[in-house]
Amino acid sequence: MKLHHGNYSSSSRRVTIAAALLGVELELKPLDLRDREARARLEQLNPNSKVPVLEDGDFVLWESNAIMQYLCEKTPGQTLYPSELRDRMEVQRWLNWSSAHWSTAIGFLGWENVWKKFVTGQDPDPEQVKRHELTFHQFANVLDRHLANRTWVVGDRLTLADIALATPLMMTRAARLPLRSYEHIQAWFARVQELPAWKQTEPPPMG
Fold it and tell me: Does residue 116 contact residue 158 with C-beta atoms inside 8 Å?
C-alpha cells in the first residue's frame, strides 16, 4: 500500500502512527504541497487536493480517519478500533468531534502562528488569534473534563480516538496553543508522546 503524505500534516501523521501500531507496512510517498506538479498529481488522486491519500492496488482512499479505520479492518485481532459496538461508537464519536471541532480550532491557530508567515510573509493577526483561542478553549475544556479520570479517551486502552486527538497537538509550541491550564490533556498527551510509534513518526526539523 502507498501513502501520499505531508511531513508536517497532522492528518498524515495519524495514519503513519496507526500503521506503526498495527504493524502495517506502507510505502511512503512524501509530497511537497508547494510544488505545482506535486499538487497536480495529488489532485488526480484526491479532488480536495489534500493529504493523506492511500492507494491499495486500484482502491484509492482519502480522509485520514477513514484510512485509519481501513487499516484496522485489514488487521486481524487489532484493538485500536474496537469491535464491541458501544466502544466502537465512542471512538467514532471522538473521531467526528476531532474533525468538526478540535482539529479545526487548532488548525486556525496553526495557520496564524506558523503557516501564515511561511506562506504569505504576513504576521499573525492578533484579533484572529484571540478569536481562535476562544474557540480552542471551548473545546479544550470538553476534552480536559473527559480525561479527568481516564488514562485513554475510550475504555482502558489506546484507540484511534487518542491518535486522532493527539496528532493536531504535534506543533503545540510553534502554534502557541494555550494548553497550560489543561492538566489532564497535558498528562494524556505526554503518555501518547511516549509511544514508540509517536517517536518513530516525528517529522524532520522544519527548514
Answer: no
